[in-house]
Amino acid sequence: MTAIKPFRIAISEDILADLKSRLARTRWPEAELVDDWSQGAPLKWIREICGYWANEYDWRAREAKLNCFDQFTTEIDGLDIHFLHVRSKEPSALPLIISHGWPGSIVEFQKVIAPLVDPAAHGGDPADAFHVVCPSLPGFGFSGKPKTTGWGVDRIAATWAGLMDRLGYARYGAQGGDWGSAVTTSLGGQDPEHCAGIHITLAFNAAPKVEGEPTPEEKRALAGLKHYVDLDSGYSKQQSTRPQTLGYGLTDSPSGQAAWILEKFWAWTDCDGHPENIFSKDELLDNVMLYWATETATSSARLYWESFGKRRTTPKVNVPTGVAVFPKEIITPVRRWMEPNFSKITHWSEMEKGGHFAAFEQPELFVRDVRKFFATVR
Fold first, then answer.
1. Backbone conformation region of residue 308, classed left if phi is above 0, alpha if psi is from -120 to 50, else beta
2. How far apart are CA 258 and CA 28, in angstroms?
3. Do the Cβ atoms of 164 and 95 come closer than 8 Å?
4. Which UniProt keywords apply (predicted)?
5. Which of 115, 333, 297, 346 is closest to 204 using CA atoms?
6. Measured between alpha carbons, how far is 198 from 373 in angstroms, rounded to an integer?
7. Strand ranges of the sheet holding 94-99, from the earlier edge strand across to the other edge
């Protein structure tokens, strides 16, 4: 039960043929009635990207690129966990577990793993090297799908602590964005004996606490919160209340799955109005494929059902904490709101550009900040 087994991504030809067939037979809705994204992902672009997906996208090439990283599975708490594990040649490398969220995946970290593992080969200091562990969240990608309820943020964090222990890492750092920020925060609270520090880009457990006139930092976050609640949170309400109902459509329709995910790469990135200003079609579809090919639309959405509206008793985080604030984050972190729950915020960076998918959007800024923070806790 504690075995660590090598893993390679190998999507069957049947799945790829079925995908092409479904894309060819898509029944499209009429176009939106506006000339922007205010009614959702535009028909013209979704048709274009699905046409590319069916006729030009080369999954086998992308699969080979992902398989360049050493991958494994291991069973923890009754569930198979898939993870990348890329060890550095530097003897002083710090183990680092990096966690994604929704609608992300391990694809987000393709561009940062090599610079983190081998800084000397990427213009950095060998002293900043990491052994990188990058798991797929339960119910996401190639990790197992929970067969019982109870797989919320804190249980995932406990599983990550077990994974690092199984890999022989008595001391490690943790980093995360989106749900990965929540898991990383919980990990820092649960396992301070082994977790040397955490680095996050989103502050889940930092509720607004405005006293008097809001500071500019607070005004920015409050504006982001209002926009999210008013215009951007419908997906979350659906996934946190009726994920099963949603899953029928997304699991059956690749165009539906693509639109559901790719809208967020418009809404949550620093893309100047269009996702392809910062991502190629291939990069966007690589991430969509990790939901489509594994049929994880429903199981990934259940993390919202498990998490929102549930009582949590995550311990206060007393390990050193670094925060990178990317300007186009959904709700930018506010230090004053975080301080009651994070006793040692030792690093705070206001980034010049970037949004929610930090490592995917701005890999150089992400790597620079991760190195800078963890240099203080090595």
1. beta
2. 13
3. yes
4. Aromatic hydrocarbons catabolism, Hydrolase
5. 333
6. 9
7. 4-6, 71-76, 79-86, 130-135, 94-99, 172-176, 195-200, 321-325, 345-350
Best CA proximity match to 364, nearest among 62, 119, 98, 101: 119
Q: What are the structure tokens assigned to 266, written together?
A: 């418009």
Residue pLDDT, tens place only, 121-171: 999 999 999 999 999 999 999 999 999 999 999 999 999 999 999 999 999
Structure-token pair, residue 134: 């990058």
Sign of the dihedral defined by the CA atoms of residues 310, 313, 316, 322, in that order: negative
Number of H helices, E strands in the chain: 15, 9
What's the pTM? 0.97
Beta carbons of 239 and 178 less than 8 angstroms apart: no
Which residues belong to the active site?
178, 304, 356
**317-369: pLDDT as tens digits:** 999 999 999 999 999 999 999 999 999 999 999 999 999 999 999 999 999 99
Strands 172-176, 94-99: pairing kind: parallel
What does the alpha-carbon distance between residue 127 and residue 95 come to, in Å, rounded to a whole number? 13
| Distance (Å, whole) CA 271 – CA 236 | 22
Name, in order, each residue with C-beta under 8 angstroms of 219's C-beta and a sequence gap of 6 or more: none
Q: Which two tokens stand for residue 204?
A: 């889940």
